[in-house]
Amino acid sequence: MTKECKQQFTLRITQANKTEMIVILYEMLLVYLDEAEKAHEQAAISEYREALRKVKGCLDELQASLNLDYELALRLFSLYMYCNRELIKADIRKDTEPLSHVRLVIENLLTAYRKLAAEDTSAPVMQNSQTVYAGLTYGKNSLSENMAEQSANRGFRA
């Protein structure tokens, strides 16, 4: 994942509510899947395995966030377990076909969660973070970031 991509995800996380956090995790997972496929094409096995480890980390986070008191969460858990099994197959066989199965599941879930996120009006999870506004400056196609309400606590409550 590029530095710019990490910064973009970090910024989005600071402003996201619970549903948007799930969307971000799905998007990160897909980026890591892309990295795994690219590493496989280049026969870079260590990078391939590292990307798979990051995909698994995203899946683990998604599983940990489930409230298993609900039937829907149990179904999502089953889908995440299926994805984990496919990742194991991809790792053992050094094959990208199982990754396409994972991609299909995650892309469908991402579509559904994007619709949910559009309707979710709850407050951001990080209540005490800095607000960042970005816009085009007078420079040619340059983007500047301005921090609003800068304070010494940087998101921590005293």
Task: Please explain how this structure is put together.
This protein has helices spanning 3-15, 18-41, 45-64, 71-93, 97-119, and strands at 131-136, 143-148. With 158 residues, it is mostly helical. Strand 1 and strand 2 form a beta hairpin. Helix 2 runs antiparallel to helix 3 (45-64), helix 2 runs antiparallel to helix 5 and helix 3 packs antiparallel against helix 4. The radius of gyration is 18 Å and the shape is globular. 18% of the residues are buried. Mean pLDDT is 84; it is low at 146-150.
Strand residue content: 5-15%
For the secondary structure, the number of strands is 2
Please outline the major beta sheet: 2 strands, antiparallel
Spatial order of strands in the largest sheet: 1-2
- How many helices? The count is 5
Strand and helix order: HHHHHEE
**Mean of residue pLDDT values:** 84
What is the end-to-end distance? 34 Å
* Silhouette: globular
Structural class: mainly alpha
pLDDT under 50 segments (min length 5)?
146-150
- Give the radius of gyration: 18 Å
Percentage of helical residues? 55-70%
Task: For this entry, give a set of tags.
158 residues; mainly alpha; two-stranded antiparallel sheet; 5 helices; 2 strands
Explain briefly what this protein structure is.
This protein is mainly alpha-helical and 158 residues long.
Q: Topology, pairings included?
A:
Blueprint: H1 3-15, H2 18-41, H3 45-64, H4 71-93, H5 97-119, E1 131-136, E2 143-148
Antiparallel strand pairs: 1-2
Helix pairs in contact: 2-3, 2-5, 3-4, 4-5
